[in-house]
């Protein structure tokens, strides 16, 4: 079966595959169906798990797609991603990185600075991996970024006393944030 353009590549940059990271990867796989590639996967156990979600390669995207039309989604990029960018791209690359409350520029350090690929951003907010993949999917289907509502942060209420604030951007659909399936249950166990 021929791959649809663009391919979404997740450059797996975390040292381990945590439960939270896997939840975000699973959600991304549902959004992108058979059009997802995980790169930089060197651990055999991680490879076995991720092969259930998409194609898996141990090499970095820059080595696999050298000479191809690729775009790295980097929060520090100067230009935002547009539908025409997506239409021309062979692949869109996002970092498989769990964020910190204050962004640390790891996408640039670990992926975009050495890739030689164009870079684009998804607005001023740091997004979750699956939130970014949702926004990228919408843009690749023709929706401009300015028409995608994104919450600055979300609060998950566990009970009348306890809650968790996630200081990341989350897309909003029908007045509800698009939250990683299983994340609320995972956070309630912490």
Q: Structural class, from helix and strand content?
A: alpha/beta
Q: What overall form do the CA principal axes indicate? A: globular
Q: Averaged pLDDT, please? A: 91
Number of distinct helices: 7
Number of strands: 11
What is the number of independent domains? Answer: 1
For this entry, give a set of tags.
alpha/beta; Alpha/beta knot; 11 strands; about 30% helix; six-stranded parallel beta sheet; about 190 residues; three-stranded antiparallel beta sheet
What does it look like?
The chain has 190 residues and is α/β, with parallel strands linked by helices. It has one domain (7-148): Alpha/beta knot. The chain is built from 7 helices and 11 strands. The chain has helices at residues 19-32, 44-50, 61-64, 83-88, 106-115, 129-140, 183-189; strands at residues 7-12, 36-39, 55-56, 70-73, 91-96, 118-120, 150-151, 154-157, 163-166, 170-173, 176-177. Strands 3-2-1-5-4-6 form a 6-stranded parallel β-sheet, sandwiched between helices. Strands 7-10-11 form a 3-stranded antiparallel β-sheet, with helices on one face. The chain has a two-stranded antiparallel ribbon with strand order 8-9. The radius of gyration is 16 Å and the shape is globular.
Blueprint (SSEs and pairs):
Blueprint: E1 7-12, H1 19-32, E2 36-39, H2 44-50, E3 55-56, H3 61-64, E4 70-73, H4 83-88, E5 91-96, H5 106-115, E6 118-120, H6 129-140, E7 150-151, E8 154-157, E9 163-166, E10 170-173, E11 176-177, H7 183-189
Parallel strand pairs: 1-2, 1-5, 2-3, 4-5, 4-6
Antiparallel strand pairs: 7-10, 8-9, 10-11
Helix pairs in contact: 1-6
